[in-house]
């Protein structure tokens, strides 16, 4: 197993991993939040706090968002940066999306940190799924957010139509929140049924979060895609360490069969041996016959779970019970065939 840092001993890292495994999700979440505090430097006491914030945001998020922040902060002459409260930033947006008929779940660096080694969150990713018809306009739905978020309903409406990422900005903390549409047909649908519900903050209901499997597959695929474009043949250390952190912390609980299956499906199988070796995991048996059997079982199970997911979304859990029992019998029969 390769340690996350060259100056960390193997024994020390194994001890850390065991402590992470024992800690509840809420503790992981609060550590991520602490690491994500981005208080302005204050090195220039005479410099206006708003100008320093605009400069920081422009450097971090780009000129377009920097201009939006500059226009917004002119309305708040006494503005000062607040401490990051990830739950309080996430919850109102997720509820507004829900009112718009759109389900969402936490992805990105927060999800990978919850399943692996904790790190700071430069921004927040919300993956959008299950858009339904709505009776209210987006202007009405997002109006309550306008006091605390830099939000433009027209831009969100256009992004929903074009299925592209759109960004909101929490004005108090200047934390960017990206609304992301799934990109990879088949994989994204299969991952929706692996979502986990985690109690991250006692003030709110459990939050839906991308699974460790989804985050690990995406990290591996992103490393493979970046490797293909780099002339030096090097893997991005940040992405690679994120992936290893997930694999190490999940350890024996991690579904290596599905991980291997999706790595092959998405063209990242050449990095599998290195990832598993660096994480100290044993590769599952992947002979062609065993892989075909595993793939068939995965497809059957995921079609069943996906059916359950969408029917539950449409008709509710109570109406689902009878259908679920019949479908489980069918799947059991297919799996034994």
Automatic annotation (TrEMBL):
Q: Which domain of life is it from?
A: Bacteria
- What protein name does the entry list? Uncharacterized protein
The organism's lineage? Bacteria, Bacillati, Chloroflexota, Ktedonobacteria, Ktedonobacterales
């Amino acid at each position: 197993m390769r340690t996350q840092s060259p100056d960390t001993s193997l024994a020390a890292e194994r001890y850390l991993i065991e402590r992470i495994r024992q800690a509840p999700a809420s503790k992981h979440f609060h550590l991520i939040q602490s690491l994500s505090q981005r208080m302005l430097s204050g090195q220039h006491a005479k410099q206006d706090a708003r100008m320093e914030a605009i400069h920081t945001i422009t450097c971090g998020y780009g000129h377009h968002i920097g201009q939006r922040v500059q226009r917004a902060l002119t309305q708040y002459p006494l503005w000062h940066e607040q401490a990051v409260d990830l739950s309080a930033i996430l919850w109102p947006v997720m509820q507004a999306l829900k009112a718009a008929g759109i389900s969402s779940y936490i992805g990105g660096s927060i999800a990978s940190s919850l399943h692996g080694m904790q790190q700071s969150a430069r921004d927040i990713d919300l993956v959008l799924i299950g858009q339904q018809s709505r009776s209210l306009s987006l202007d009405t739905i997002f109006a309550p957010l306008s006091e605390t978020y830099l939000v433009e309903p027209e831009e969100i409406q256009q992004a929903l139509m074009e299925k592209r990422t759109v960004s909101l900005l929490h004005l108090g903390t200047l934390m960017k929140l990206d609304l992301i549409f799934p990109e990879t047909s088949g994989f994204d649908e299969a991952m929706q049924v692996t979502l986990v519900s985690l109690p991250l903050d006692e003030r709110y209901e459990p939050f839906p979060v991308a699974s460790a499997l989804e985050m690990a597959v995406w990290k591996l695929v992103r490393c493979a895609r970046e490797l293909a474009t780099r002339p030096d043949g090097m893997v991005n250390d940040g992405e690679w360490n994120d992936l290893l952190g997930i694999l190490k912390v999940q350890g024996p609980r991690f579904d290596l069969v599905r991980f291997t299956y999706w790595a092959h499906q998405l063209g990242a199988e050449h990095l599998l041996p290195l990832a598993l070796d660096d994480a100290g995991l044993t590769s599952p048996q992947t002979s062609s016959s065993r892989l075909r059997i595993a793939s068939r079982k995965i497809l059957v199970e995921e079609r069943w779970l996906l059916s359950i997911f969408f029917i539950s979304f449409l008709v509710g859990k109570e109406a689902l019970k009878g259908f679920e029992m019949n479908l489980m019998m069918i799947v059991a029969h297919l799996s034994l065939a």
